Amino acid sequence: MPGPVQYVLFDMDGLMIDSERIYSDVTNSILAPYGKEQTWDIKAGCMGKPERAAALHLLSFFPDIDLDLETYLKERNRLQDLAWPTVPLLPGTRKLVLHLKKHSIPIAIATGSRRRNYELKTRAEGAQPEKREVFEAFEEKVACGDDTQYGMRGKPNPDVFLVAAKELLGRNVGKLVGVDEEGSEYLTKEQLDERAKGLVFEDALPGMQAGKRAGMNVIWVPDPNLLDVEYTGKEKADQTLESLEDFRPEEWGLPPYDELS
């Protein structure tokens, strides 16, 4: 494994909370009257993208149906808003986040989700107390896909992870945006080293790519269906886990879990 980790960045959807199931159920309920279905090959290209980019990707596979972008988004958002407050934490999330918090490891969230949706998913009336506890541990250190003050591009671009590291955690990672996998020549050795101290948790292929393009270590926790999706990108995760429950902090130079955890 690489050198010891000094800060940790989390994706949210499909990694910390079981929201990808809701995305799939809602999308397929909208497509059903047209006799269509979102397969995992299609879904893989949507995951981690900003809302409109993901919707355009989805609809590009169904040019023969009478469903425009705005109509789809309006109905999708209506159905999703009803479900977001009840979306549960995924296994291992609470244990890991609270463990890192207890040991004063800097943590932040870097999500492609819109901020209004982040609030609905994590803190809306009806959200479970344990979910509120987990997201309060981040102390508002959250970068969302529509935070326009940073001019971020969506994943697989590295922007959201660089923003989270620099703006939220104060790390010297160099230029925030516009630096892709070909941009390392514009960074100092100190900045490259600082990026390499970060650990990213992701479930989506574009998110895994974004973390690697940011120069950070990436642990990929994919839905099993993603393992069957053809992937030709050159970025590879540093470690792949079936669940956050399988993470061993000491392998990355982080404090181990207490024996009673």
Features:
DNA polymerase, domain 1; alpha/beta; 261 residues; single chain; six-stranded parallel sheet; globular; PGP-like_dom2
Radius of gyration: 18 Å
First and last CA, distance: 24 Å
**Uncertain segments:** none
Instruction: Give the number of domains.
Output: 2
Q: Helix proportion of residues, in percent?
A: 25-40%
Specify the CATH architecture of the largest domain.
3-Layer(aba) Sandwich
Main sheet specs: 6 strands, parallel
Structural class: alpha/beta
Q: Give the averaged pLDDT, no decimals.
A: 90
β-strand number = 6
GO molecular function, one term: phosphatase activity
Biased composition (Basic and acidic residues): 241-251
Protein name: HAD-like protein
Pfam families: Hydrolase
Give an account of the 3D structure.
- This protein has 261 residues and is of the alpha/beta class.
- The chain has two domains: 7-18 and 86-252, HAD superfamily/HAD-like (Rossmann fold), CATH 3.40.50.1000; 19-85, DNA polymerase, domain 1 (Orthogonal Bundle).
- It is 37% helix and 8% strand.
- A six-stranded parallel beta sheet has the order 3-2-1-4-5-6, with helices on both faces.
- Helix 5 runs parallel beside helix 7 (129-136).
- The longest helix has 15 residues, at 69-83.
- The chain is globular.
- It starts with 6 loop residues before the first strand and ends in a 21-residue tail after the last strand.
- The mean pLDDT is 90.
Secondary structure elements and pairings:
Layout: E1 7-10, H1 19-31, H2 40-46, H3 51-59, H4 69-83, H5 93-102, E2 107-110, H6 115-122, H7 129-136, E3 142-143, H8 159-168, H9 189-196, E4 198-202, H10 205-213, E5 217-220, E6 239-240
Parallel strand pairs: 1-2, 1-4, 2-3, 4-5, 5-6
Biased composition (Basic and acidic residues): 241-251
Protein name: HAD-like protein
Pfam family, one: Hydrolase
